[in-house]
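Q: My collaborator sent me two sequences in one message, no labels, and asked for predicted structures for both. Can we handle them in order? The first one she listed is below.
A: Yes, handling them in the order given. First sequence, followed by its structure tokens:
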Amino acid sequence: MCEVFQQTVAAHPDVVALRTPDDSARITWREYGERVRQIAAKLYALGVRKGDTVALMMTNRPEFHLVDTAVFHLGAIPFSIYNTSSAEQIDYLFGNAENRVVVCEKQFEPLACSAETVLTIEDLADDSPDFDFDATWRAVDPDDVLTLIYTSGTTGPPKGVEITHRNIRFSMAAALEMPQFAAAATDGRVLSYLPDAHLANRYFAHYLPMCTGATTTCVSDPKTLASVLPKVRPTAVGIPVCEGWAMSESSVHGTVNRPDALKPGTVGKPMPGVEVRLADDGELLLRSPAVMKGYRKDPVKTAEAIDAEGWLHTGDIGTISDDGYVSIVDRKKELIIYAAGKNMSPANIENAVKVASPLIGSVVAIGDRRPYVVALITLDPETGTDPHALAQDPEIVQAVTKAVREANATLSRVEQIKAFRILPTFWLPGGNELTPTMKLKRKPIAELYATEIDALYSER
């Protein structure tokens, strides 16, 4: 990716590469290249070398792109941390990544204190002795690790997914063969509003523009996205929504619907260079040159995930139609096995309830080895400020009851929710119940709310 970046800098020096919505920051590709060289010199002077890891803790801002790119030009490995992470979670990531250096915003300094060297964005402005920058980045190998992406940790500690330069270069080249991605060409405009700890944001708003010369607008607060859109006019807005599927372990390279062959209810067909098939138990397997190098410091889990033939065992139960369209049923480990033996998808049940009312924030369906399905429901945090009062409000209770009834009408008899409870709390990303990417932490939820769950079964 170093060579890709340098080629884009040379080809589009005066095109704006990075900006903020109000244009208080505008950085051309030429300036981007100069800043990368400067920051790389600073980090090199601090002892950062090929194979080292560097943690990044920032909101969505242009400096992320500058620092991340500078780090991988040294052959070092940048990785981002969710801003909602606790000190304990951050310490775990530091231990697994073995990083000595953290680059962060001042507001995150207290959380990064366990690292040997903590640099703020302001520190990077200092001049540092020059070094042979060109020789350094040219020594980076395609099979060197480009970034670490930590999984959200729904079933245990996060795993560090090692993505190589080769993984992303292959994925980018293949993606640009498709019309919905080829639109992000030289005059393309991209919005960056997701956390950079999420590979999807790195893929579409960091690496893809690096290949095309597109302009990335950094939105620090996702809540302002609606007001930013008219100012930015992103290339991809206005085209059909093309649902796709991928995972960090596949370098966000999997399946996607094409605008000219859209099939609602599916996640499309395999992207160029991707093979998919189903295991005997229905698990979706994927193989491509974009599949990760492995899990950092975990050869056992790597061997469990990637078999001897190179197939990535995704953990998703799926189906493949005769014409090649893939549909995702649920996570393999999360299927509910009804007491009578039927397998059910909790996500299917939960989604049916959530779409029935905007008041509902989270739903978790319980029923594994149980006589029937029950649910814990929390309200959307934007519903109000007092979850205790809201959970008892007659109008709220009536609306949620109606939503459950409507959801049940779309479900089979054994899938229907027989009892539910509105919890007097909000579940927030990065908390005990939800990962930073809003996935349910089912095991902790079952432990934290065991009393409420047991009561739902004893009350009938």
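Q: And the one she listed second?
A: Here it is, processed independently of the first:
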Amino acid sequence: MFKSNVLRFCANVLKHREMILLLSARDLQSRYAGTLGGMIWAFVHPIAAVCVFYFVFAVGFRAQGPSHIPFILWFVCGLTPWYFFNDTLQVITGAITANAYLVTKTVFPTEILPLVYIISGLFPHFVFLTLLGIMMSMFHLPFFADRLLVLYYLGCTMVLLLGLGWLLSALQVFYRDIGQALTILLNMWFWMTPIVWVQNIVPAAYQGVLTSNPIYYIVQGYRGLMVYKTPIWPDMHETVVFWTITSVYPEAALVLLAAWVRPAFPGARAIPRMAPPRPKAPT
């Protein structure tokens, strides 16, 4: 069943690829529509976030990363995948209710909607990666072909977003509290992930809890490839745990979409058409 769902999704992506790209471009444009700065804000937000976090933790709390690694580089490398995950997941959660006018069309595959926002979220993520690359050159970190493995972790993030996005956007149709609860959950998730603190402070008895956190796997993957002079490849045990946990979300979500969401929409045309809420950075 899982294999058939994956194949059906891939077929729908290929069939509607032009629509996906068009909707992604429109979403990206709508983020900065009506502003004087326009796309400049895509660069200002990451820089401002890095400056604020750095001042609070490095200057105020005098936080430190692993030895021999500049804290700012270590921190930004962990913040880069988190911002992509955090921002995109909040928008995806409202994907179905925000596009009810599309979902009510029987020829429209609901499952491609989260992918639209994942693709549009790649642009701010690449801005973060550009900022990270500039910082790496400032600290004289050499480039290795192995560092391109970061694309694997980007793919991991997209798959995780796709599964969670399907699940949460489907639940959001019936329970509008999901979006509000998600904001709280993501703030807790941020502080439970070693982004501003080093994982070594966690007692050995609780290290397994970190491993079961899929974002931990991604953050550590980015850091292992980008902040060390010799890239560190993925740990096999953590890789198996990540994909085992991540594979649960798409299957559960696709079943929910097929069983509940699609049958509900013929009689649910009163669902308001509203823009997905713009996410806020964790505080």
